[in-house]
Every structure is written in C-alpha cells, then in structure tokens.
Amino acid sequence: MAENAYAKLLAAQIRGQLQYRLSFTFDLVLNAGITTIDVLVLLAVFRVTPSLAGFGIGAVLLMTGLAQLAFQLADVAVGNLERVPQYLRTGLLDAVLLRPLSTFGQLVVLDFSIRRAGRIVQGLCTYGVALRVADIEWTPARVLLAAVAPLAGAVSYAAIFTAGAATMFWLVDGGEVVNAVTYGGRDFASYPTAMYGAWFGKLFGFALGLASVGYLPALALLGRTDPLGTPAWSHWAAPAVSVVWAFAAAGIWRVGVRHYQSTGS
Amino acid sequence: MLASAFTNSVFGFLKTYVLLAVAANGAVAGYDAAALAMFAWAGQGLIGVVQVFQWNELADRIRTGDIVADLLRPVDPLVSFLAVDLGRALHALAVRLTVPLAVGALFFPLRWPEHPITWLAVVASVVFATVTSFATRYLINLLAFWWLDARGPGTLWLVGGTLFTGLAVPIPFFPEWAQAVLWCTPFPWMLQAPLDVLLERGSAVTLVAGGALAAGLTLAAAASAQRVAVRRLVVQGG
C-alpha cells in the first residue's frame, strides 16, 4: 500500500510536468546543456595550460566525469530537498508530517522533477569518454571500482543534500549556505584535490570526504601515487566513505525533523 | 545576504585555486597570478551586484496576471523594475561585493588598480553591466507573455550567465573565434568588461563605451519587446 502511494504521487508529478510539452522539451534539453558548462570550462582551462597540479586532461576529465555523474544521480533523486525551506515557511511540512508515510520519502516524491533527468546524460557521456581516453590498465578490481565509484559518490552527494536540507530546520533561510557544500562540493571533486591550498583541500577533501568522489578513485583507476601522500588502500575507499555519509545524514535528518516546530499557521 | 556572501566566498576559493593552478607556470592569456586571483574574487563579488543569476519576478507576475496592476500604473514597468533593480544592486555593493573581496584579499595577493582614475571607470562599467544584465533578464522574462511556463528560457539564461559572462572562466581562455562571437552578445559586458577595466587590461574607454552601447541596445530591445507583448496581452483569470 505504501509503495503504491509513493508510485502514485510520483506518477502524478511526472504527468503534471509533461503538460506544457514544448517548454518541457526545451527544459529537458537545456538541463542537459547546462551540465556541459563544466566540461566546456575544463576544455577552456586546458586550452591555456597543459596540466593542473601535475595531472593532464585525461586524468582530470576522469575526475570530472566521476564527480559530475555522481552529483547528477544524487541531484535527480533528492535534489528537490532544496525546497525544504519553502515547506517550512509555508507550513506544508505540517501536512506532510500528518500523513502515515515517511517524511523523507514524501518530500522526495512530492517535488520530483523529471526534467532534471536530462542532466544525467552529460555525466554518462563525460565519464564514458574519460574511461576511454584515460590511460587505464584494466583489472577486474578496477572494472568493479569504475562501476561502483559513481554510485558511491552519488550516495555521498545525496547524503550531503539530505544533511543540508536537515540543517534548514534550524537555519530556515540559509539555503545558499548549503549550496556551498552541494554545488561547491561538485566543483571541488571535479578537480584534483592536490590542486587546492592545504587547509581548503583538507577541509573539503578529507574532513567532508569529497576527495573520495573523483580524485582518489581516479588515482586508483590510473594506478598513480598521490602527491598528497595518501596510502594506496585509501584510493579504494569511496564505498566506505559513502556508507559513513549515509548514516551521518540519516542521523542529522532525524534530529532535524524532531526539532521542527510548526509556525502554527 | 550574508549567506550569499558566504557561498560566493567558498566558490571564490574554488575558482582561485583552479586559476592559480592554470597560472602555475607563468601568465596565461595576459593574466598573471595576482590578476587571476583578483578576477576570481571581484567576479564572485560582482555576480551579486549585476545579478548574473536567474530572476523570475516579472515572469511570475505575467503568469499570475499581476502584471495588469503594473501596466495600470502611470510608470512604465520597465522603468520601475529598472529602478528597483538598481536599488538592489546598490544594496548588494555593501555586502555581496565587499565580503568576498575582503576574504580574497585576506588569503591571496590580489592585483589592485595602479591608477586612481581606474576606479571611476570601474564604477561606470559596473553601472552599465547592471543595466545590461537587467535588460537581458527583463527580455527573457517577457517571453512569459508568449510562453506561460518560462522556466525553459530561464534555464537558457543560466547557461549564458555562467559560461559567457566570464564567471566560469575568463573569456580570453576561449578560442579567438568564440571570443569574437561572444563580445557581440550582451553577456561579456555584464562581468568580463568591468573586471577587465578593474585589472586595467585593454582600453578602459573602449570597454566603458562598449558597456554603454550594450546597456542602450538591450534596454531598447526590452522596451520594444514589451510594446509588442502588451499589444497582444490576454489577461488570464479574473
């Protein structure tokens, strides 16, 4: 019964969004187009420089592909949690809490935006091209990592989206602060962690675990050593990092929902 | 406001590190490390002033029919929205420009203008950039008269606003032909032009004059598009 309700809500959302067909198609194509910005930026950067922090275009493209695909998967699945502040202000969350369904599940399907699906295309293309172009000696372990790393990254980004949305229960109007970690996190992981200043790279790369989205798996796939000196085993740790993120986000979300006090309107 | 300034600053770090890595072996496209750091931080500060990101207020008013109230007033909505936008830009100067610039100056050596007169050119250039950005946004919002759900065109703006203004990477990083094409669009005049004036790159007179031309042309385009739109306006609901 419960799955049925989610499926119906989701189907209704998708049907509704397909009503203005021309605008929707335009939107879908542009959503795919928007994500190519990051690839074009990368190409423009490598037009004027041969390497970034010692990594050539093939290696950086691999990191960008991993980060983009992971982020886009998370964005399509739970990116609409960005709208939690609106639900808090308008009191819609009261209605959501009263229903006998999971709060998180409802919020995810309530505002599911099918046009975001266009974005995954770019991530898949970039990652696919990067895997072909980059100089990878394929082993069974690397094939497995190449398949799992974007999914692990997606779980990490989804957890960041969720934790960010949960902080809105306290901050209410601080959505932009969360953007610094979500969209900023995507941009961070698109480039080698070794390129950033010491404290900035440590904060985003290792304290927030974003090095494990693009940089470390790319090192493992390419069989390169890390100029930052991380041990080789840690380059394979992306799935473990995503599990830690998932548990942390689930905890923060639960505390956040409990903290919620209705505006009473 | 502070939240935006914080986020702009985080992106300032991200951008600066990319640009500094690019310039690791010396100047690129005529920018040295200090100039690129200034480009990144002043750019992050200016996006809030010239408002490079999406703006839907007019499109929303057209969709809901509230635009009728604006049209009944004795002031042209183009003028009143422009006045509001300039006020917003002035307010943004206080927080959204100063905070990222201060953060940038704290962590990186920045290239400040050598000649005091440059500041005057910067002010003029920023005013024209804001007007150009406003007129272009207004024009895209006007599409809602024809296209009730104007989210698609709004997304197009996002691409132009990020990639073609110089926000993502300086325009001179692009191939020559692409640069030539881009300078014929309003986009570089919103960010690249004031930043080049600030960095004393190229002729300030040309950049400011070009900015004035871009502002004039986009405003004229917005005004004539509005005339056409109002002529065929059908008020929804009642």
Could you explain the architecture of this structure?
The complex is a heterodimer of chains A (265) and B (238). Chain A is an all-alpha fold. Helix content of chain A is 72%, strand content 0%. Chain A has twelve helices and no strands. Chain A has helices spanning 2-17, 21-48, 57-78, 84-90, 92-98, 103-110, 118-133, 140-171, 175-189, 198-207, 215-222, 238-259. Chain A is globular. Chain B is mainly α and 238 residues long. Helices cover 70% and strands 0% of the residues of chain B. Chain B has helices spanning 2-22, 33-51, 57-64, 67-72, 77-107, 117-142, 151-164, 176-182, 192-198, 204-231. In chain B, helix 2 (33-51) packs antiparallel against helix 5, helix 2 crosses helix 6 (117-142) and helix 6 runs parallel beside helix 10. The longest helix of chain B has 31 residues, at 77-107. Chain B is elongated, with a radius of gyration of 19 Å. The model of chain B has no long low-confidence stretch (mean pLDDT 89). Chain A binds chain B through residues 20, 22-24, 26-27, 30-31, 33-34, 37, 40-41, 44-45, 47-49, 52-53, 173-177, 179-181, 184, 187-188, 191, 195-197, 200, and chain B through 3-4, 6-7, 10-11, 13-14, 17-18, 21-25, 28-29, 107, 147-153, 155-156, 158-159, 162-163, 168-169, 173-175.
Structural class category of chain A: mainly alpha
- Strand proportion of chain B, as a percent range, falls in under 5%
Strand-pairing-aware structural class of chain B: mainly alpha
Low-confidence stretches of chain A: none
Strand content of chain A: under 5%
Which chain pair shows the most residues in contact?
A-B, 36 and 36 residues
Q: How many H/I helical runs of chain A?
A: 12
Largest sheet of chain B: none
Number of strands of chain A: 0
Could you report the average pLDDT of chain B, rounded to the nearest whole number?
A: 89
Instruction: Spell the H/E element sequence of chain B.
Output: HHHHHHHHHH
Low-pLDDT runs of 5+ residues of chain B are none
Shape by Cα distribution of chain A: globular
* Topology of chain A as a string of helices (H) and strands (E): HHHHHHHHHHHH
Q: Largest sheet of chain A at a glance?
A: none
Q: What fraction, in percent, of the residue positions of chain A are helical?
A: over 70%
